[in-house]
Structure formats: C-alpha cells, structure tokens
Amino acid sequence: MNKNVSNILKAVSKPGRYSGGEYGQIIKDKSKVKARFAFCFPDTYEIGMSNLGVRILYGVLNREEDVWCERVYDPWLDMQEKMREHHLPLCACESGDPLSEFDMIGFTLQYEMSYTNVLNMLDLAGLPLRQSERDDSMPIVIGGGPCAYNPEPVADFFDLFNIGEGEEMLPELCRLYIQMKEEGRYTKAEYLHEAARSIEGIYVPSLYQVSYNEDGTIKEYTPIYDDIPTTIHKRIIKDMDTAYFPEKVVMPYIETVHDRVMLEVFRGCIRGCRFCQAGMIYRPVREKSPEVLNEQAKCLFEATGYDEISLTSLSISDYTQLEELCNLLLEWTDENMVSLSLPSLRVDSFTKELMDKIATVRSSSLTFAPEAGTQRLRDVINKNVLEEDLLRAVKVAFEAGKNTVKLYFMSGLPTETLDDIAGIAELASHVIDAYYQTPNRNRAKKPQVTISVSCFIPKPFTPFQWEAQDTFDQLAEKQEYLGSKITDKKIRYTHHDAKVSRIEAVLARGDRRLAPALELACKEGFCFDSWDECFDYDRWISVLERTGIDPAFYANRVWGLDEVLPWDIIDCGVSKEFLRKERDRAYAEATTPNCREKCSGCGANKMGGERTCCPKAKN
Amino acid sequence: MLSQSEKLSKLEEKKRILALPELERPRTVRLKFRKVGSLQYISHLDLQRTFMRVLTRACLPVWYTKGFNPHAKLVFSTPLSVGAQSEYEFLDLRIDREMSTEEIMKRLNRELTEELQITEAYLPKSDFSEIAWATYEIEICTEHASEALAEQMTKVLTTAPLLLTKRTKAGEKEIDIVPLIHEIKIRFNENDATIGISATLSATTGEFLNPEMLITALKRECSIMSGDPMKEWYTILRTSVMKADFTRFR
After folding, report:
1. Domain B2-125 - what CATH class?
2. What whole-number distance in Å separates Cα of residue A36 and Cα of residue A170?
C-alpha cells in the first residue's frame, strides 16, 4: 500500500476499499516487466471486485510473463476529497503506483452511467481527458465491455476500443506495444495505426472522421487511412471449453456485491428479447461442457473457500445440460456446505426438480422477469413467456414453502398502452391468488409479491434501436397509473427513476458530439451517476443545455430506418437487416422462435463457435 | 504426512480428513495471529468472514453447529479497532477430526498473506476472560515533536482525572482513563523526530481502554496532529496481552 494513502485511510469510510493486500493478488517485479497495464473498473471496489470479466482479463494479462496487470477502482467521494486535498493521484491496488506511470490503462464499460466515473478516474490520475491531448509519454487508454458497442459518446477520450471478447485482443495489444517499444519504433500515432490495421476487433476512433447532415443526423464515417477496416468486426472466443479460465481469484477482505464463485456456463442467449442488448451482442451461443464446468467449479472452490457457487449466464435455464451439471456439482457441494444459486431463471423452465437442487444448504430468493403485463406486449418484445408458465412456476415455489416472489417489468415499451400497464397489477394479483390456490403452501405466512418496474431504454444493436423512449412525463404518468392500480398490501411496488433512464438513453444512442457535455460534467465533479445519492437530473440537463445538446434528439426521437447510426461502424455479428425484420415482427405482434427451435438468420453464425446452437455455424 | 497429501486435490484431501473417526467431543484449538499492514483497515466482521473462507481453503476439519443453518464457531479475543495493527491476536476454533496443531498452522498459513499469519497454534488451557491487560507501541509523527512535548504528554496521560467520552452500547459516558493505564513510557526519538509511546492498558471486557483514546486525549490536550495527514500521523501496534498478574496470556 502506498504510504501516503495509508495516512489518510483513518479518515475515510470503508478504508478496506483502498488498503489492498488481498490474498491472490499478483505482484511482479517492476524491473522485469515490459508493459504495465492498469485495469480500471469505473465504480466502487465492491462492485468492481465482483465482475467476472475483470477476473478473467486480470488473469489473461498476468499470464504474459512480461506484462503486469493491476486493478484500479473509483474511490468513493470522501476518499476523492482527501486525495485532491493532499494532491494524491489515483493509484493501482497492487503496487500503489500512480496511473500515469503505466503503459496502458483499460476501462471496462459495463453501463452508460459509469462514463462520468471514467473521466473522473482519468482526472484523478492527473491525465488529460481527451486522447488528442495525451502525448507519447502517457498511457494508452483502452475501452471494452458491452458499452464499447457504441463507444461514440466517449470516443474522444479513448485511444482505442476492444470490440467483443477481450481474452485474445488484450494480450495481442500488449505484445504489439512491447514489440514496437523494443524495436524503437513506438509512437502513439504509429501504435494506434498498427493496432487498427493488424488486430481484428480494434477500433481507433481518431482514425475515422464523422460528418453530419443538416438535420443533425450522421452523414458518414470516413477512415483516414486506406489500410484500416471500414467496419470493425467483433471478436469472440470460439471454444469456451478451452478458453482461458482464471484458476486463482483475488479474494476481497471486505464484503463485495457478489461474494461467491461465479461459474460462467455459457456465453450468448438463444432468446432474442427485442429490447435486450446483451441478447444480441453476445451471440452466438457457446456452451461449456458440464465436465469442464464441474472441474472449474472445484478449482474455484478450492482457490477461494466461497460457500456459494452461482451459475452465471444470460439465461441459465437455457443451458442444454443444466441437469447434468447440477448433478455433477451436487456430488460434492452438499458435503462441503456449498450452495448453488441460479440467477436469471426463466419461468417456463422452473421446475420442482430444479428447485430441489438449488434449495440445498440455504434457500435462494426467487425472481422472475415477465417484463410486460399482457400477452400482447410480451409478444411484441418476444419474451415468449405465458401467464400460465409464471403461475405454474410460482406455485412450485409456494409449494416448497416460499412466500415471496419478485417480478421484474419494464414500462415504456414500444406500442405499450395503459392496458398493458394495468396488466402488470393484474398479473401480480394473480400470483397472490396462486398462493392461496396452493394447498401445500406455508400457511403460517402471507404471500408477498414485489414488482419492480424499470424504464425501457432503446439500445444499440437491438430490434428496438430505432424506437423513441417515452418522454419523462409519459413515464411518470405510467408509473403513477400503475401505483393507482395496486391496492393489495401484499403487493409491493418499486420503480426505477425515469430521470436516470432518460440520461441513460441519451448516452446509449449518443454520438461524438456528446464529448463536450461529458467533459463539462467531469469538470463540474460528476461521478457515481448510477448511485441515487449522486445523480442529479437538473444538473445533467443544465450540462447538456450549456453544451448545446438536445436530449430529445437522442432519447425521444424515432430514428430513421435508413439513418446512419453512430454504431454502424461496428459489426456485432447480428445483421442490421435482421434487427429491422425483428422490428417489423414486433409491430405485427409476432414472436420469433428461439435459436434452438429454429434459426432466424441473425447472421451471428458466420462467426463460428463450438457447442453453439447455430445450425449453419462454420468453424 | 503433508508431503503425501500434497498429491491430492483439496476436495480429495477434505474427503480423506472427513473419513477419519469423529472426535468424541469437538476440540478447541487456539490460534495466535498477526494482523498488520493493510490488514489494519479490515474490520472485525470482515476478518471473521475472511477466516471462514480460509478455514475452508485449508481443508480443516472444522466442527459445525448442528441445526438448520450449520456454521463454524469462531471466537476472537480482545477487540482491535480499525486502523490498529497487532502481533498478538487470538482466535479459538473447534475441530471434530484429528489434526495436529502444527499441521493446522501450516495449512492455514499457506492460505494467508504475510500481513495475516498464524504465529502459534495450541490447545488452550486458559479462557479469554482471563485477559486483563494489553500492551501497545504507538508512534506519533507530529510537527514540533520534542523532548518537551514527550514530557508534556506523559504529564497529560498520568494526571487524573483525564475525562473522555466513551461510546458504549448504552450510549455515551464520561470516563477517567488514567486508572485504566497501568504503565506508560513516552520518549522522543531524535533520529526520526517522532514520539514513541509504550503503554499497558486495561483490556478487561468491562473496562477496555481503546488505545485510540490516548490519541484523542493527546490531540485535545497537546494540540497535536491537527494539520496535514501527510506530515502528521500515528500508528498503533498491539504487542501483547496479559493476565491480571502481568504474565503473558496464552
């Protein structure tokens, strides 16, 4: 730990966030490494330490003998204040060295509302925000993660982006860096050009010029060199069984959000819900085999001592060999007091057998996501879940003695009417009825249904990417209407802040013209905007106004189907044509079968992949 | 024995240990441990959670409570506040299969960092309630540190009454801390211009004196450490705990 940092830790809350020294951290000899990489998670330690992607990439980079990857998180407000007061720059956990001393700084962009934290961290590191203002002596700043699929709002601050899965790309970037340094031909400009030209999946925004039409829409993207790609194709790891797997985990001393083994079962999703970005950008589906997963789970348990294993994926019950996997795990988890948890369960696959498997040592909470209140709207969004599936699933849970269920919904979905909103309340009361219709329920307890309603945000690379978000007033009206429809005290109703969702919508579909706004936000001290206590809508609107940005242009406009989209420069595997067809089907209230029932030709199978469900996948 | 078992995976190892005959009664093993460096910022609750995982990683035959929610029983000795280091912490755990204390210590230390190490493991013959005193080394770096300041500090900490507010479960109360200080030596270290304090403070459950209270008193009475934490700071290290007769607690 940095000595200067240690001196102020007695004066901040949760000092364990900053003290480092965790079991499992990787320490290397500075004099022997050729590239130092600072892996930044633009949120608190507790959230960042729980991220599976960071765990994987930390291991992947440190596997390179001459690369040392360290972790960095955004310090909480009280710590930031102390750091600024005493002129302490942002430092990495392992060495305690300031970020400015690193060769490369990587940010994982998990959610749009963390963009202000990215700038905040660069600022705390004493680095210029704009990539054009950082010279050859300063670190290369890299972005990746789901938000890198439309990196344009933050494009001016990054040197390059990784599009897709980073396990191969990041080491390739380090190797190129080391090679150019050793050959004495490193300049930042040369490096960026070379990376864009020679490494697939690398997007260097400064090498593309953007022009705009008079109505404010984008005219075109022009590469400034002939030898760089006009479209950047995302990278994937084809075979998940042989993909790099981190056998060691850095063990936090303080409690983090996910204090458990996270076992990544598969990537991608077969479902194709039309609002869901993750369901599109992580295609094609690629599974790990149960035997491999069982060995990896054992390995992680032995390395961590965690008492819970969470089977993670976008929709765990769609894993083709879930039963085999659970059986293999249960052979040893029970006697070692380890419980299994299965987040992201779909109601149509929730059975008594499955429930028995997960309710072993401790009970797990039950959450389902019907997303919409009526069958019509569920068909529009392609959720492919029936009310009877939900009621059957909750009865299974109630029969097993549970009395609380949490249901997730979304409001503001395309074509939504007040009837659909009222449907949410009706569905919740049908769940209550189902409780009393269950003969073997826990008679000592009353049922409790919590409905949590978020706001629809049109996201890039979804069939709804062209849709308008409801205005703030519309969203507020719907929230209030739903509130008035809920009279039963056994139903608890919570909803997301529509104001946050509106800013998120602006950032999600934003382009490079948002840079001055984010820059101003940083200058005015914005950070932790995904935290209620920090987010201030009026200040956001003021920042947007002062930088000449109309939030409605990005959030509340129906985008033209022929419009050049800010993210058209990126190929996520799924074709624009498919997204358009899916949009048409949504308006026709027609569902699309999942990838396992029938291939709908999204285009992702051109990427190949092992243990996938794409019929035409070529390897 | 350990060299043989190193070929087994931890799960196989655990299986082998669990196959041993169960002890007639769970056996209490006392661990003496060090908690220094970055670990000083880890709270008691977080330390407890950490030890649970470490015990699992070390494949110890930990005895679990019977009942609906089985859990290991860990009992820690004297509390240590966040921001204080210690060479002298104790933890009692119970095992229900045969395993030597040497092996327990060896297994645990493999799963710990240098800042958190088991320094002794043995079968205890005493009870934590016998702990009466704890000794501390406190280092203070402050502007205007001098021989005279050291003398002034000595006077402050030895002249009763020295009233301080103590926060307890029942609320706040005023206490005189001087009777809780058995012995105190304060010196000025010329070479690094710091003040060093060696103190023996009451450590009974009812009258536990947190060494931070000394710092609070000195800040107030001697107007020290009100400035830049880069230049003015202090460290606290617990060096031993003792019984009422001032023999080392074991």
Report:
1. alpha beta
2. 12
